[in-house]
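Our preliminary data section would be incomplete without showing what the modeling component actually yields. Below, a chain of 470 amino acids is followed by its predicted structure, encoded as tokens that our downstream tools consume directly.
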Amino acid sequence: MKAVIRFLLLTALSVLPLFGEAQSLPRVSPESVGLDATRLANADTAIQAEIAKGRIPGAVLAVVRNGQMAYLKAYGHRAVYPKSLPMTVNTVFDLASCSKSLSTAICVMQLIEAGKVRLNDPVRLFIPQFKSWRSGADTTTIRIIHLLTHTSGLPPYAPVEQIRKRCGSPCPDSLMAYIATCRRDFAPESKFQYSCLNFVTLQHIVETVTHQSLRDYAASHIFQPLGMAHTDYLPCRADARGRWINTDSPRWVKAGERPGDTPIAPTERQKDGSVLLGQVHDPLARVLNGGISGNAGLFSSADDIAVLCACLLHEGSWNGHRILAPLTVKTMRTVPPSLAAFGRALGWDVCSPYASNKGDLLSNATFSHTGYTGTSVVIDPDNDLAIILLINAVHPDDKYSVVRLRSLVANAVAGAINEPSGLSTSGTTLTAAMPPFFPLASGSSVWWGRASSWPTPASASTRCSSSVSR
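Predicted structure:
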């Protein structure tokens, strides 16, 4: 009997996910989680129409429900310059401002629940030179909650070229010095203004408290525990010819994968004819922060993001690894009562003018974020649903907006819901994973069946207006 028990224990342990081991959600058919596959095809139509017009090169769409991957499809091409390359479902994308939600905000919330930081802490507690808002004799302290909700009064962006010419590249300390002393546009909590500088400041707070780079801390506390093997910040710099190159290998290459085995979607064509490929598109993150930045710089795939979405839908825990407490997740996705007029949660958007990517049909509990390159993550706890739309819309040139497309896709997915979620709103129950699955059709579509002081430039705000103008 003891031998039988020992055998069963060893068998159970052998299937538990290892820390850092690549994990993907189980693949299921849309119907098995209450989605109508025919109606989901409306999302295909919307995406393919934009590809046919030449407005985007391609895309990857992932739909997560009840902790399972119900739809995963690649469209078009990941590259059309200098040569045409097909899009694949495992393509890694520059997430742009989705980095704020999927990395920086979660890092901050981890420090809050660890008792190291408070939402109400003044920023100057961690960055002593950081100035408050002043108007005559009036002074208002800028606090961490203001950074997370974009109500701090910091300008939208920084004068990248001015700072580079004065301080070189990269120059993260000089960028932080600029943010600490630059003009504040309004008193904290009096207005909402989306600002990348808020999240660069949060990056410095994370790094000050943890004594680690944002890249290292996020990897060890979020991505590795969840088995997100193809998620990383990719450090970079300009070489002697001015071309952007990476200065370190991605985590998946360091883990033994051959360079190039996992494709990366290129972004914008540069003046010299090269394209950014594995170097973050955002100038502030690339030029001044060397690729590791609180506002942008994270690269990831649909599979990896799906795992993180499932974790947030399951109260901060997935496959035996907890990255946030249930109350922390609930707090993070809730608009603070004192800031209800602005519609921003802690690192996420709920109902601000930037939240059009969640469409018109999902629940009021939905929280989301977008990235300038064309990325979008939408999470609806009431319907246990996540919609991940990855587009390199700035390739080969930054010309077209995907604001409307994001909303169309969200509506098509919401319109495909036939049955209530198998997961309660509180996220305390989870549909059991099905047995192993195999693809029922070839091609890019993956269907599954069961086998058995410096002035801020006037144009700066356009860089951080991903949901409104892009």
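The radius of gyration is 22 Å. Residues 37-52 form the longest helix (16 residues). Preliminary results of this kind motivate Aim 1 of the renewal.
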